[in-house]
Design a protein that fits this description.
Layout: H1 5-19, E1 29-35, E2 42-48, E3 50-51, E4 55-59, H2 67-75, E5 77-82, E6 85-96, H3 105-113, E7 118-124
């Protein structure tokens, strides 16, 4: 049960309006700066993100069909505003992992309850 489109719509209209002010510096959050694959317009989307050995991992709680995910995959790169710093990332890779191994243990458990098993891996430039 990936989060529903109704929840996504609410988050886009309400929650993201608050998160966009804190996601660039709050632990466990970042803002992904990406270009629209059709419009070429710049978008800024707050996300939950976790560090990996060579970059970052994002749990795709709305699934891999979210527009921001498609934009990042199409470009192959994006910028993260992570702890008040801009971090260029590349090599965007969609991963399906039932065991959620790339995530911290407590987060794995929450994602298991939500039945999330798709992730986006991003490597630092």
């Amino acid at each position: 049960m990936v989060l529903s489109k109704r929840v996504a719509r609410f988050n886009r209209v309400a929650t993201n309006q608050v998160l966009k002010h804190i996601a660039g510096w709050a632990p466990g959050f970042a803002i992904v700066v990406h270009k629209g694959r059709k419009s070429g317009r710049e978008f800024r989307t707050p996300i939950n993100v976790f560090r990996t050995k060579d970059g970052f991992v994002v749990a795709l709680t709305y699934g891999p069909d979210a527009d921001w995910v498609k934009n990042v995959l199409a470009a192959g790169r994006c910028t993260l505003v992570f702890r008040r710093k801009k971090v260029a990332v590349h090599g965007a890779e969609l991963v399906h992992d039932e065991s959620r191994q790339a995530m911290p243990v407590p987060i794995r458990q929450v994602l298991g309850l939500l039945d999330v098993h798709d992730f986006l891996l991003l490597k630092r430039d």
